[in-house]
Design goal:
about 170 residues; alpha+beta; Aminopeptidase; seven-stranded mixed beta sheet; about 30% strand
């Protein structure tokens, strides 16, 4: 049986650092930090310290004492919560773990008042995009990201009225 638990950033970061290389080893991410001078890196660090985003969620999935997956995200604005990263170990994929992580994060973020839940994914990451579309996320746009490549941007609106406007703006409905 899989148990889900929200944890603190201090609890999550060591898990993320330990398991991220294993779970994302096939990605062709580019380390864009290597392109910055030391002065630029210092400036970025200073600017990062000025960003005081307080609201973050770290949800983990466990089978007994074994970590099987996670999802974490952060506040972008008073309206938007960004689902930043999710992962499920290969032997637990296609068993509903990701869907449950996603549903719990969306539910908690909306319960806390966020009107938009957003995420970005590699354009061919159907294992994540399809479950999100099934629960009401819609495509908001695409971008070419220097680090990750072609990304699809998704959004889940809390308000049905805003979703209707979104659909109208994309030409889906009059």
């Amino acid at each position: 049986m899989i148990n889900y638990k929200f944890i603190t950033k201090e609890e999550f970061v060591p898990l993320f650092r330990q398991y991220r290389p294993e779970l994302f080893e096939d990605n062709n991410d580019v380390d864009i930090n290597s392109f910055f001078s030391e002065i630029d890196k210092e400036k970025i660090t200073t600017l990062d310290k000025m960003c005081t985003t307080q609201y973050r969620l770290y949800l983990t999935a466990w089978e007994n004492e074994k970590l099987v997956g996670w999802s974490w995200g952060l506040q972008i604005s008073g309206m938007e919560f960004y689902m930043c990263n999710s992962a499920v170990f290969p032997e637990y994929r296609r068993k509903g773990v990701y869907t449950e992580l996603m549903n719990k994060v969306v539910e908690k973020a909306q319960e806390d008042g966020f009107q938009e839940i957003t995420s970005k994914h590699h354009a061919d990451n159907n294992a994540v995009i399809i479950p999100k579309l099934k629960v009401g996320f819609v495509i908001k746009g695409f971008e070419i990201n220097p680090r990750f490549g072609l990304m699809v941007n998704l959004v889940c609106y809390k308000s049905e009225d805003i979703l209707k406007v979104h659909n109208q703006r994309t030409g889906l409905k009059k």
